[in-house]
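Run log // design_07
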């Protein structure tokens, strides 16, 4: 608006200047023409007087001629004064125009600058909404529940074969039921299944859990074994063996309905390593395998989630007679970050 007023002021000033210049030029021309006509008429009169003066008034004719030149010089000075006044007026108008231009440039807003300011404001708004109104994509979770192996644990807690007993003292580990606790992390990788499905996250899960099947009788060289052997060997172990396993897994996880409070998910296949204890009869403990899973969680408050899952654990082979295949099912508590 300020720039428009400035344009109008400049146009009015230019018009006034052109009008004044034209009027002054016309006035100067008119005065000059009038002066020229008057001088011409006066000169004719003086010539007429001069003709009479030739015959007896020669000195007076000379005086008349001098007076005529003096009057012409006076009109010339008057015209110069008007030109000077017009020039001064022009300079004042030019100064005022420069001031108006400077004011217009000072108050004008660069369109590019305005766009940058608008973009910055929009970005700040988006960041504010993202920080306060959206769920966080990563999660740490703590889990626990029930587990069951497909077969008996296998292996023995005391593989000693005493002569005359016809077999193993403690027998094979037959536990199948277990409980477990564990924890893990979900890391966001992609928000639209690599362009194939909107609002579908791809996550990387790192997880570990501890699974305990039960306790068995004392193992190793026990007092009972010493009595059976009857060779004076003392029983040195009176501790029971805890039958357990540690699972480490890394899996891709597909999580649906991004932006919703309810988020179902599945693990198509993941890598898993199981560490068994006690060791197998061949004293080995590591068994690689795969994990498949499905579950869902619900945002109960801010970035706190409650969820449940079911997972199937499959090993590529037995660990020298020990089978660790089976299911785990339970719940978890997640914290978004």
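design_07 sequence
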């Amino acid at each position: 608006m300020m720039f428009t007023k400035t344009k109008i002021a400049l146009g009015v000033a230019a018009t006034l200047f052109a009008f004044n210049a034209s009027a002054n030029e016309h006035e100067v021309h008119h005065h000059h023409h009038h002066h020229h006509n008057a001088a011409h008429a006066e000169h004719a009169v003086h010539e007429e007087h001069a003709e009479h003066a030739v015959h007896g008034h020669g000195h007076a004719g000379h005086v008349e001629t001098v007076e005529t030149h003096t009057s012409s010089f006076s009109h010339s000075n008057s015209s110069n004064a008007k030109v000077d006044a017009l020039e001064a007026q022009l300079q004042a108008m030019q100064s005022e125009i420069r001031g108006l231009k400077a004011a217009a440039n000072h108050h004008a807003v660069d369109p590019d600058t305005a766009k940058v300011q608008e973009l910055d404001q929009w970005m700040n708004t988006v960041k504010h909404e993202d920080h306060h109104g959206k769920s966080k994509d990563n999660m740490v979770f703590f889990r626990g529940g029930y587990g069951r192996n497909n077969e008996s644990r296998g292996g023995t807690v005391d593989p000693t074969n005493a002569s005359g007993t016809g077999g193993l003292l403690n027998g094979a580990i037959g536990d199948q039921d277990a409980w477990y606790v564990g924890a893990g992390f979900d890391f966001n990788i992609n928000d639209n299944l690599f362009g194939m499905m909107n609002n579908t996250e791809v996550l990387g899960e790192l997880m570990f859990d501890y699974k305990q099947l039960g306790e068995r009788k004392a193992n190793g060289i026990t007092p009972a074994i010493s009595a059976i052997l009857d060779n004076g060997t003392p029983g040195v172990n009176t501790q029971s063996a805890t039958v357990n396993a540690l699972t480490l897994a890394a899996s891709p996880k597909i999580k649906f309905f991004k932006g919703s409070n309810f988020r179902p998910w599945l693990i198509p296949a993941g890598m898993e390593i199981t560490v068994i204890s006690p060791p197998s009869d061949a004293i080995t403990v590591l068994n690689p395998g795969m994990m498949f899973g499905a579950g869902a969680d619900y945002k109960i408050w801010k970035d706190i989630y409650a969820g449940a899952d079911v997972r199937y654990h499959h090993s590529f082979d037995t660990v020298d007679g020990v089978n660790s295949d089976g299911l785990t099912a339970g719940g978890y508590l997640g914290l978004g970050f």
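The longest strand covers residues 201-218.
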